[in-house]
Design a protein that fits this description.
The protein has 12 helices and 6 strands. The strands form 3 sheets. Strands 1-4 form a two-stranded antiparallel sheet. By secondary structure, the chain is mainly alpha-helical. The chain has 2 domains: 15-54 and 110-286; 56-106, no CATH class.
């Protein structure tokens, strides 16, 4: 009797430890997910976060600072400044800037408000911003699915260093429901990873054309700052995207369960002991078929 009570207590202790470990793993995965949201936003919303040059708007009225065409009066010879200032109005009336303000070629660093100035943006600018937003939505949906898969793996599977990392297909055979769920999650993860990869590539190309070449009216490129910002923001998630695609492909192809949130790849290669005891029953028909074979 005492022996049975001791075994029961030991079993309860192990279950509590396993539950606590699962809780810690879920919290860790959630923190990793939340911590990467800002980097994901920067990598997707390139037209907002990449440093760009915005035009200085000069009204078509006389000004003591700028002359016709937005030329700074201080850069002109003193003898020419009065005439330049007086001719601002006539210049605007007789030029294509009659309905539009003059743009200074040097400009200034765009603020976030200027980057999302929907009313005054060009059609191409709006299109790039919409593509950025769609990419962000797809990325967030994929990460939400990956997190859901991660929680499922933590609750139903476990990592056992005493057996090969590729043992899950053999370990999971007697548990038909787990096999189906693992296959479903792996297929979904691969589809999301492939979609995210394509979206990030398209988003990068279109955003690069916009911030480096402009929208046909104005060139937003300020040189090395723009190029560095574009590459840095994209590289923030490039390794993450490569990991998503590689791990999901390996999991789908081999029926493995590889984590997408660990710095060092973790392969859940065994069925959780608590699941074996309390939630799953081996498929007897499958066992019989294997015995016959």
């Amino acid at each position: 009797m005492r022996r049975e009570e001791a075994e029961l207590e030991e079993s309860l202790r192990r279950r509590k430890e396993a539950a606590l470990e699962n809780y810690r793993s879920i919290v860790q995965s959630t923190l990793v997910q939340v911590g990467g949201l800002y980097a994901v936003s920067q990598a997707c919303l390139l037209s907002l976060f990449v440093p760009q040059k915005c035009p200085v708007v000069i009204p078509c009225t006389p000004t003591p600072v700028y002359g016709c065409g937005g030329v700074k009066l201080s850069t002109l010879p003193i003898a020419d400044r009065a005439d330049a200032a007086a001719n601002v109005t006539s210049c605007c009336v007789t030029s294509r800037f009659f309905d539009y303000p003059t743009y200074l070629p040097d400009g200034h660093l765009c603020s976030m408000k200027e980057n999302i100035d929907w009313d005054n943006d060009s059609d191409f600018n709006r299109a790039v911003l919409l593509i950025n937003i769609v990419t962000l939505v797809v990325m967030l949906a994929a990460q939400s699915y990956f997190w859901k898969r991660e929680v499922w793996m933590i609750n139903h599977l476990e990592e056992d260093n005493t057996v090969p990392y590729s043992s899950l297909p053999e370990q999971i055979k007697p548990y038909d429901e787990l096999r189906k769920q693992n296959t479903t999650y792996n297929g979904g993860a691969y589809a999301y990873a492939a979609t995210v990869t394509v979206c990030i590539m398209i988003n990068f190309i279109i955003s690069a054309v916009f911030v480096l070449k402009g929208d046909g009216t104005y060139n937003y490129n300020i040189g090395s700052r723009t190029v560095t910002g574009l590459l840095t923001n994209t590289m923030l998630v490039s390794t993450k995207i490569i990991g998503y695609f590689s791990y999901s492909r390996l999991s789908k192809t081999n029926d493995w369960a590889i984590s997408m949130f660990s710095v060092i790849p973790v392969s859940y290669n065994c069925v959780d002991e608590n699941y074996k005891i309390h939630h799953a029953k081996p498929d007897e028909d499958l066992a019989k078929e294997e015995d016959v074979a």
